[in-house]
Design brief:
The chain is α/β, with parallel strands linked by helices. It contains five helices and seven strands, in the order αβαβαββαβαββ. 26% of the residues lie in helices and 28% in strands.
Length: 183
């Protein structure tokens, strides 16, 4: 997938206003670049991945083309720091082809959701109708996403886009918002 395709895929799930977002499991940065396109230069985007080489490549790209991207080497499935941010301060989290690598997705998602401001958004890019494999070890079918989101304190997710995957199944994009803390 290239940046243009990623923009088309996620644009309907993201409000087109500047904010502070984190692309967790950013990899080579395809979706980080898409966030830059959708959110614009006044946004701040943390690109988080545990692969030092991928983060290094993102850092080189960001230094030349996107000063608003802050590359961070970290494993999003474990507690980690985002430089200069306190919790909760994120307007959004993008989990593009990342959460299906996490065996305990509910626990990790609940921890990540605490980084969001109330009303902050989580955008999921996942596979529907695909069995477990080396590339998608813990699939999250669209039918299971509402329960996963609710367990993390998120609203019912809305699917904003789908497309056939050349790797089998259907790729979907869904958005859910952090609910206000109970009083």
């Amino acid at each position: 997938m290239n940046t243009r395709e990623a923009v088309a895929l996620i644009a309907g799930a993201i409000a087109k206003r500047a904010g502070t977002w984190a692309d967790l499991g950013a990899g080579d940065g395809t979706f980080t670049r898409a966030l830059v396109e959708v959110l614009g230069p006044d946004s701040q985007i943390y690109a988080v991945d545990r692969d030092k080489r991928a983060v290094g490549a993102l850092a080189r790209w960001a230094s030349k083309q996107a000063a608003n991207v802050i590359p961070v080497t970290a494993d999003f499935t474990r507690p980690f720091e985002l430089p200069g941010l306190e919790e909760p301060s994120l307007d959004g989290i993008l989990l593009a082809n990342a959460l299906h690598f996490v065996p305990d997705a509910g626990v990790v998602l609940a921890r990540l959701t605490k980084r969001l401001r109330p009303g902050g958004r989580v955008v999921f890019v996942e596979y529907d109708r695909r069995g477990a494999s080396r590339w998608v070890p813990y699939p999250i079918p669209a039918a299971q996403l509402p329960a996963l989101a609710a367990s993390a304190g998120l609203s019912a997710p809305a699917i904003t886009a789908t497309r056939p995957s050349r790797f089998g199944g259907v790729l979907y994009v869904a958005a859910a918002d952090r609910l206000p803390d109970p009083q």
